[in-house]
Design brief:
The chain is mainly α and 59 residues long. The chain has one domain. Helix content is 61%, strand content 0%. The chain is built from four helices and no strands. Helix 3 crosses helix 4.
């Protein structure tokens, strides 16, 4: 059986969309973080993936 989240790709890979549960799971898997850490990083740095990565690495 194929896992739907393993095949998922965001429509805009340059931004994190916290409003889409599949996208949240995708970014948590890609960035190796928890949902809470992702939400905190987006809240602090904005939704651009480069800024989110930098924020997570600084933590």
């Amino acid at each position: 059986m194929i896992n739907a989240t393993s095949q998922f790709r965001p429509l805009d890979p340059g931004r994190v969309n916290l409003g889409d549960p599949l996208e949240v799971q995708y970014w948590c898997r890609e960035l190796g973080c928890s949902e809470r850490d992702l939400e905190d990083a987006v809240s602090t740095a904005g939704d651009h993936i480069a800024a989110v990565r930098d924020q997570l690495e600084a933590k």
